Amino acid sequence: MTRDLEQYLRPGLVTAFCPGCGDGILLGLILRAIDELKINIDDMLFVSGIGCAGWIPSPNFNADTLHTLHGRTIPFATGAKMFNPKLQVMIISGDGDLADIGGNHLIHGARRNIDLTVILVNNFLYGMTGGQVACTTPMGAFTMTTTEGNPYRPFDLPKLVDAAGATYVARYSVTQPLALISSIKKAVQIKGFSFIEVLSPCPIQFGRRNQLGTPIDMIKFLMDKCIMKEEAEGLSPEELEGKIITGEFSDGRN
Ligand SMILES: Cc1ncc(C[n+]2csc(CCOP(=O)(O)OP(=O)(O)O)c2C)c(N)n1
Ligand SMILES: [Mg+2]
Questions:
Q1: CA distances to 33, 181, 234, 252 from 230, in Å
Q2: Which residues pair with 221 in a beta bridge?
Q3: Rounded Cα distance, 189 and 226, in Å
Q4: Residue 237, class by beta-carbon neighbours within 10 Å (0-12 exposed, 13-18 middle, 19+ buried)?
Q5: Is the CB of 129 under 6 A from ligand 1?
Q6: Closest residue (by CA) to atom 25 of ligand 1?
Q7: For residue 101, how far is its CA from the centre of ligand 1 (angstroms)?
Q8: Which ligand lies nearest to the CA atom of residue 122 in the structure?
Q9: Residue nearest (by alpha carbon) to ligand 1 atom 11
Q10: Is 138 in contact with 156 (CB distance < 8 Å)?
Q11: Prior bond of 215 cis (ω within 30°)
Q12: Is 110 exposed, middle or buried (0-12, 13-18, 19+ CB in 10 A)?
């Protein structure tokens, strides 16, 4: 991370992230987006749940942070926003936290179209607790609790949140940093429920069990898997097999 962003970090912290974790990359990209928007970080509230991704804002950001109960970011954030509608409220949390234990809050938050920005970090499993299967684990993937391969399909989270009624819906990987920064900027500016699914490598829990190699190999794996929506439109289902479509799925105008 570049020096100019250090102003947004609490001093004296040691990172909690494992080597090769994408959460540190995302931390820098979120701060870059806030810096480019020229928002006063004191006008923001960051809400996170339990899990590795919940550590991105708290304790790292030198700002108001609420580190809440597992799965309960959206109710806490809704309460804060209702109490002080001028607050820019950003939720940053894991796939397990937001879409498994907090799945109902996620869809109802989108249905009510509450003015919140949600950044869901998808590392394909429950990272912090030892690598259990999540609703985002790809079919066939190995986790601590699917030693024979996950028998179930994962949720397509942007489709789910879009169908529930969110205003802005996107998916990017930390390997698409510039597109992700502009998406975060847009999500913050749009009124209504803004949702970005961010794919983030977890070499320790996911990569190791699925033989994805070194952290660099995992970055290359994500770069190879992700394809922009516009590019995907011209391809056949066979050509799209195994690909993850990224981009904006709802941009606030529909
Ligand atoms: C009510 C409750 N149930 C379970 C847990 C244990 N727990 C803590 S973090 C976590 C999973 C987090 O996974 P995810 O949200 O994907 O975050 P990651 O660590 O992968 O970033 C679980 C099950 C808990 N803290 N509280
Ligand atoms: Mg996770």
A1: 23, 18, 8, 18
A2: none
A3: 26
A4: exposed
A5: yes
A6: 70
A7: 8
A8: 2
A9: 126
A10: no
A11: no
A12: buried
Residue 211 tokens read as 């033989």
Cα dihedral across residues 227, 228, 234, 240: positive or negative? positive
Question: What is the CATH topology of the domain spanning 3-251?
Answer: Rossmann fold (3.40.50)
pLDDT per residue of the chain (254 residues) written in tens, 0 to 9 = 678 999 999 999 999 999 999 999 999 999 999 999 999 999 999 999 999 999 999 999 999 999 999 999 999 999 999 999 999 999 999 999 999 999 999 999 999 999 999 999 999 999 999 999 999 999 999 999 999 999 999 999 999 999 999 999 999 999 999 999 999 999 999 999 999 999 999 999 999 999 999 999 999 999 999 999 999 999 999 999 999 999 999 998 55
